């Protein structure tokens, strides 16, 4: 607990930073003010700063000792296109955008760790503080990697952290292997022939075809995959027509696929295309199915064993063994931090945001990051640096 207590002096500052960021949310690849705020703080702490990586990404570098390992710590900065429904003073001032996933808190905790380590560099090595844009569906991690992240900052290992409302306040959850699922999005366009709603026999109804296809797609998981393999196929958008009395000529369906094995991604995609083609043919409409039409899908978030144990030990140092769940259920949610884990060994863990009658899930218009965990999360980062880069 000593590290947590030593970071309590930064609690008020981190809360101020976090609430400032919450008021001014910026979405994917538009985090210019957020990046400027982060850059100013890092330079104030005395770190070397690299701006504009992957668009709006920022990397701060801190060295201590005589060499040692190079460790990268990552926080995401982007917000979501959600209208905030909270009424507190620090609610979003940007209409239609809010920090509904806690990236404001992630940024504040990593800034707190950078501040503390700059003042008390009790480690031997190099720390890269990565502030990443566009985690929400836009693969900002891949953009930073493609822009030379690990060529410019050759980390030996990389670590990420995310708040989790279903975990008790300040506790941690982490395990080796699959922590979060792979993610692919898809778009299906069914093209029929428009006609008057009173004369459906004169057209080819893409809406009816879409209705049958939506139901059929649910059989991919229930009837075509091994029941021991977890996967989810979800339709999240349906777009068709713009008037009451006309059957439209086309329907667009969009959705997501999530699973824990690359081979399942391939199998699900093939079955989705097969069902789309067969049902389209049955209703005499044409169809196209495209995966990841705008952005790359996300791989499985896979924690390497040695680095997971280092993360677990660092968490235990902060909250004790009873406060660390070493076998959490893997989440069907996805993370573009997975791209970093494909490049470097590392670990992604969850910190509890609290579970109570007044708490709510991520991506909810009433969500707010719990400021009580700021010093705990920052202390975890500090303990992790001491674990990976000890002073010998």
UniProtKB/TrEMBL annotation:
Residues in Peptidase M20 dimerisation domain copies: 186-269
Name the keywords, alphabetized. Answer: Hydrolase, Manganese, Metal-binding
Q: Quote the cofactor binding remark.
A: The Mn(2+) ion enhances activity.
Keyword presence, Hydrolase: yes
Q: Does the keyword Hydrolase apply?
A: yes
- Kindly list the positions annotated as binding Mn(2+): 101, 103, 136, 162, 363
- What cofactor is this protein dependent on? Mn(2+)
What GO molecular-function term can you cite, just one?
N-acetyldiaminopimelate deacetylase activity
For the biological process aspect of GO, one term held by this record is: diaminopimelate biosynthetic process
Q: Which NCBIfam families match?
A: amidohydrolases
* Protein name according to UniProt: Amidohydrolase
Q: Which organism is it from?
A: Methylovulum psychrotolerans
């Amino acid at each position: 607990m000593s590290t947590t207590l030593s970071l309590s002096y930064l609690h008020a500052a981190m809360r101020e930073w976090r609430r400032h960021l919450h008021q001014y949310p910026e979405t994917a690849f538009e985090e210019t003010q957020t990046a400027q705020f982060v850059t100013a703080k890092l330079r104030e702490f005395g770190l070397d700063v690299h701006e504009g990586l992957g668009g709006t990404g920022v990397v701060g570098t801190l060295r201590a000792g005589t060499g040692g390992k190079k460790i990268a710590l990552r926080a995401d900065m982007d917000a979501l296109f959600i209208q905030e429904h909270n009424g507190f003073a620090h609610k979003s001032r940007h209409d239609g955008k809010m920090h509904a996933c806690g990236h404001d808190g992630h940024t504040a905790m990593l800034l707190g760790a950078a501040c503390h380590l700059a003042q008390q560099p009790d480690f031997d090595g190099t720390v890269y503080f990565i502030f990443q844009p566009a985690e929400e569906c836009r693969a900002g991690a891949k953009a930073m990697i493609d822009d030379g992240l690990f060529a410019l900052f050759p980390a030996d290992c990389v670590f990420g952290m995310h708040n989790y409302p279903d975990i008790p306040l300040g506790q941690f959850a982490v395990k080796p292997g699959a922590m979060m699922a792979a993610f692919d999005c898809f778009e299906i366009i069914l093209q029929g022939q428009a006609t008057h709603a009173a004369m459906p026999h004169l057209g080819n109804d893409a809406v009816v075809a879409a209705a049958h296809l939506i139901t059929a797609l649910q059989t991919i998981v229930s009837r075509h995959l091994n029941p021991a393999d977890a996967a989810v196929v979800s339709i999240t958008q349906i777009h068709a027509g713009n008037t009451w009395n006309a059957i439209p000529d086309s329907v667009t369906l969009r959705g997501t696929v999530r699973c824990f094995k690359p081979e399942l991604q391939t199998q699900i995609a093939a079955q989705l295309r097969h069902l789309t083609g067969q049902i389209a043919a049955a209703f005499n409409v044409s169809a196209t199915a495209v995966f990841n039409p705008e952005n790359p899908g996300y791989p499985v978030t896979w924690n390497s064993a040695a680095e997971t144990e280092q993360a677990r030990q660092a968490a235990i140092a902060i909250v004790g063994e009873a406060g660390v769940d070493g076998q959490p259920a893997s989440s069907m949610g996805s993370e573009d931090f997975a791209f970093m884990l494909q490049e470097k060994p590392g670990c992604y863990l969850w910190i509890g945001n609290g579970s109570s009658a007044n708490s709510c899930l991520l991506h909810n218009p009433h969500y707010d990051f719990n400021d009580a965990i700021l010093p705990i999360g920052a202390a975890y980062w500090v303990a992790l640096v001491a674990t990976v880069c000890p002073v010998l």
